[in-house]
Structure formats: C-alpha cells, structure tokens
Design brief:
With 372 residues, this protein is of the alpha+beta class. Helix content is 48%, strand content 13%. This is Acyl-CoA/acyl-ACP dehydrogenase. Keywords: Membrane, Transmembrane, Transmembrane helix.
C-alpha cells in the first residue's frame, strides 16, 4: 500500500537541473520517486508552502512527460507521490503541469508560435458559475483579443504569473486564452471568503477582467474537444488516489496488534489500493495509445473509481483508528480535510450518471435487445 509497492513505475534517473523554460517537458529526463517526494516534502515544510510549491511546479513542468506520449504511467506515478506527500503542494503543482501539457499540445498542433512566452507559474481556469461570464471579443484595432467579465473558481489567481482561461465567444461557444495575471486589467477577488478547513492556503477566488489582452490558444472548442482534456482530469484523480494511499498506509503502520476487525480493515484497504493501482496502470496504457473506449468515457471511469477509493479509504480509516488521529495528529487531520475537499471536484452521482449515459450511447441497439 505504500508508494514503494505501487505498480505505477518511476525510473531511476536523478532529478536533473531545471532546463530552459521553453524546453518541451516530453523530452526532459525523468525524475525518481524519492527525488520528487523529497522535493515535495521540502516545499511542504517551507514557511510559504504555496510559493515553494510553485517553484517546484515550474521545475517539474520541465522534467515530467506530458500525458499520451508513452510515459503516462511515469507522470501519474509522480502525481500520486505528490498527493501522498502533501495535498497543498500537489494541488498547487497539478494545474501548472496541466497548463504545460496543454501548451505542448497546442504547439504541436500548430496553434502557438515560437515567440509564445510560457515562462512563470501557470493555472488553468475553466469553471463556470452564476454571477456573470468572462467574454472574449476583438480589440478596437481588430488584430487582437481582449477579455471582459467575471470568472469564478480561479485557484491561486493572486499568486500565479499567468493562466489559461476559457472565455465565451458567443452564447454557446468557448475558446481558450492565455492571460497575464500580473496585468492591472485583471483583478482577483479578496480571498477572505475562503473559509475551507481543507486546502486553506489554496484559495479559489473570482477574477474580474476589463479589456484584458488575451492570446487565443487553439480554435473554438479545441481545448474541450481534444483528448488531453480527459487526460488532465484523470491526472487530478491520480492525486486523490495518492492521498488515499497515504491514509491507508497510516492505518497499516499502526503499532497496536490487530484483532480480527483490524485485520478486516487492512484487507479492505489492501484491496482498494491494489485495485486502484491496477486500474491506473491499465488506464495509463490506454492513454498512451491502446484506447479501448473514448477518452471521455475512460476519464469518467478513472475519476469515479479514484473518488470512490478515496471516500472508502476515509471511511475505513475513521472506523479503524477512531477519533484520536483526527483530534491529535495535525498532519493526518489536515490530510483528511484536504482530501475531503479536493475529491469534491468529482461530481459524484452526476458524473456517474454521465458515465451511464455514455455507456448507453455506446451500446448498439441490437445489444439492448432492440430497445431504443
């Protein structure tokens, strides 16, 4: 159940020096599990954990591969280790890695030129909500794009350098744009309303844009329609799994001699972690070219399975260890709170219903006994 027993492999090369910012991540040397774990622990112990995590994100953005390049298991192994080590660090690093992968894909598809500045720390803001929209329009000169309006759920908007953000081109169509968050024409909301006990340092706020210059990244629909959108969602789920693995490992390491009920808990946790490892290895193989279904259906399956594993591990750990670690172990209590909030990025029954709809749509009428 520990990281060392995971079947998500990590190679043995040492963590290399930080390469030039424009180097594509897919060609950088790999990093070891222990090097990433040590770097994440160092960031977690920093007086400014988010700042240290953003520095780590930039380094890993040059080091780790992008999904779908034949090394997805390596990437996911790194994400699981981050989740196992510290969820604030993992939650800070993951969007930068997602943005780096999006930019690599956009460059390969011919949508970005060599003069595109990809330096600094990045986020990805694609959520929608009530209270207004972020809209894209042509500038007065007609040769550029500007953004105006409101965008909710922009994590660390006041700490990042840049972001990839979705904006409405019309009533039904969204495009992806790169923005500079240091520009005075974009304003993050006050983060004092963020009262979460989980991930308290990773504040999510709205941003307001007023004539903000923006650079399109791909045509309309490209961001949402590309396979990488599904791959990025699976990467988040791998972090949930890594955190669940750490909680299961803490139950396993208890010093009290197990009775039959404790052995039951250990067996349940072993089955959950083993099944998660096995599922993620199979999913990584599919992402790297042996797809048995659509990327969207695979992502729904992976995210649902990781979310269910996380929720079940939390339940079993509560039953196995009782209130003591939740009340007296600061690190454990924080990990539990962090994971409970983070895993709510999965939309529970709604995502399972979406999976069911995808299954139904993929089933031929003859396989349904001729029923429509």
């Amino acid at each position: 159940m520990s990281a060392s027993s995971s079947i998500l492999p990590m190679p043995d090369d040492p963590l290399p020096p930080d390469p030039l910012p424009q180097d594509p991540p897919a060609v950088a040397p790999p990093a070891t599990t222990e090097a990433i774990r040590d770097a994440a622990r160092s960031a977690a112990d920093s007086p400014d954990r988010v700042a240290a995590a953003l520095d780590l994100a930039e380094q890993l953005g040059h080091t780790l591969p992008v999904p779908g390049d034949g090394r997805t298991a390596e990437l996911w192994g790194a994400l699981a280790v981050l989740g196992e080590t510290d969820l604030t660090v993992a939650r800070t690093v993951e969007p930068h890695l997602d943005a780096a992968a999006i930019l690599v894909q956009a460059r390969r598809d011919g949508y970005l030129t060599d003069d595109f500045d990809a330096t600094g720390s990045w986020g990805v803001f694609a959520a929608e909500g009530p209270g207004g929209r972020l809209c894209a329009s042509r500038s007065a000169s007609g040769d550029a794009w500007v953004l105006d309006g409101h965008k909710p759920w922009c994590s660390l908007a006041d700490r990042l350098d840049r972001a990839l953000v979705t904006a409405w081109l019309d009533d039904d169509t969204r495009g992806l744009f790169a923005i500079d968050l240091r520009d005075e024409r974009v304003t993050p909301a006050d983060g004092s309303g963020w009262v979460a006990h989980g991930l308290p340092e990773v504040t999510s706020v709205a941003i307001e844009a007023r004539g903000l210059p923006a650079r399109p990244v791909g045509p309309a629909h490209w961001y949402l329609d590309r396979p990488g959108f599904a791959w990025g969602g699976m990467g988040v789920a791998v972090i949930w799994f890594g955190a669940a693995r750490a909680i299961a490992d803490q139950v396993r390491r208890r010093r009290r001699a197990p009775d039959q009920i404790a052995q039951l808990h250990l067996g349940q946790l072993d089955l959950l972690i083993w099944s998660g490892d096995t599922m993620l290895q199979a999913a990584a193989t599919q992402v790297d070219g042996s797809m048995e279904t659509t990327p969207e259906m695979l992502a729904l399956r992976v995210r649902a399975q990781c979310a269910q594993i996380a929720e079940e591990v939390l339940r079993i750990a509560d039953h196995a260890m009782g209130p003591a670690p939740l009340a007296l172990d600061r690190d454990y209590a924080q990990r539990v709170s962090d994971l409970r909030l983070y895993v709510r990025q999965h939309h529970a029954e709604r995502d399972l219903a979406a999976l069911g709809a995808a299954v139904h749509a993929s089933t031929a009428p003859a396989d349904r006994g001729g029923q429509p």
